[in-house]
Amino acid sequence: MVVSQWKLPLDEVPSGDTPYVRAKHAQMVEKDPEAAIVLFWNAINARDRVESALKDMAVVMKRLDRSEEAIEAIKSFRNLCPKQAQESLDNILIDLYKKCGRTNEHIDMLKQKLRLIYQGEAFNGKPTRTARSNRKKFQITIEQETSRILGNLGWVYMQKSNYMAAEVVYKKAQMIDPDANKACNLALCLINQGRYTEAHSVLKEVLQGKLPNSEDCKAQNRAQELMLEVEPKWLPPSETIKLEGFDLEDDFSDGFEKVLNIWAPFRTKRLPIFVEEISSYRNQLAC
């Protein structure tokens, strides 16, 4: 059953008899998601813990394949939530856009999160934030968050078959906080552009364990699968054909920071990633 996916410990059920408490009881004790949604609406309309009610309702709606409703609910009522809640609401919207396949809005939201980072407004101005996975808390740095968002943006560009834009953001993500999964995605971007020699080099780093998380079985298996596709087509570096008048690496190096400036023409004191220049590659990142 769907509801079994979100069974939570009873000691996390809030006590009392408020609209929000009744909604949580329906969600977590009675295991009745439809009733929980109605009661979460009651809590929002009663202005009872609106932030929590809105977030919890969106999660329940998503699990019932009602993500479009969840998107509209957050857009309509997020103005009732405090400023410090907006970042987490953005994260929920990103997840919902991905679920619905609304790629343009997904891209816009990811770009907005990058702008907040470069303006120093992410994490409510702090260098780290606390995240939770499997009920365990851990700290995430601004650099890790930036790399994660860039990786997500690369994934969305891949869904739009814009492999050149995806390559750019994956390379930037790897420069900030490299890992094997993003490396495999970068290799796939290169493969889809017919650049097998570069893809071979990227995959080799994963298979040789040179990147964080390279030991992960999924990363290794994926790298091996991609390498099977690459090996019949790649050329050793000494045999690589060079296009007359065009050096990809030099060109990429010169234009790399310029390309990304399309999203965030702002300097940050904490993480100076972009430069304020006009890019000749602006059209390459058009959505």
From TrEMBL:
UniProt cross-references to SUPFAM superfamilies, sorted A to Z: TPR-like
Top-level taxon: Eukaryota
Subcellular location: Nucleus
Entry keyword annotation includes Protein biosynthesis: no
Alphabetical list of Gene3D superfamilies matching this protein: Tetratricopeptide repeat domain
Extent of the TPR repeats: 147-180
Keywords: Coiled coil, Nucleus, Repeat, TPR repeat
InterPro entries: MS5/SDI1 (IPR044961), TPR-like_helical_dom_sf (IPR011990), TPR_rpt (IPR019734)
Homology family: Belongs to the MS5 protein family.
Protein name: Protein sulfur deficiency-induced 1
Species of origin: Vitis vinifera
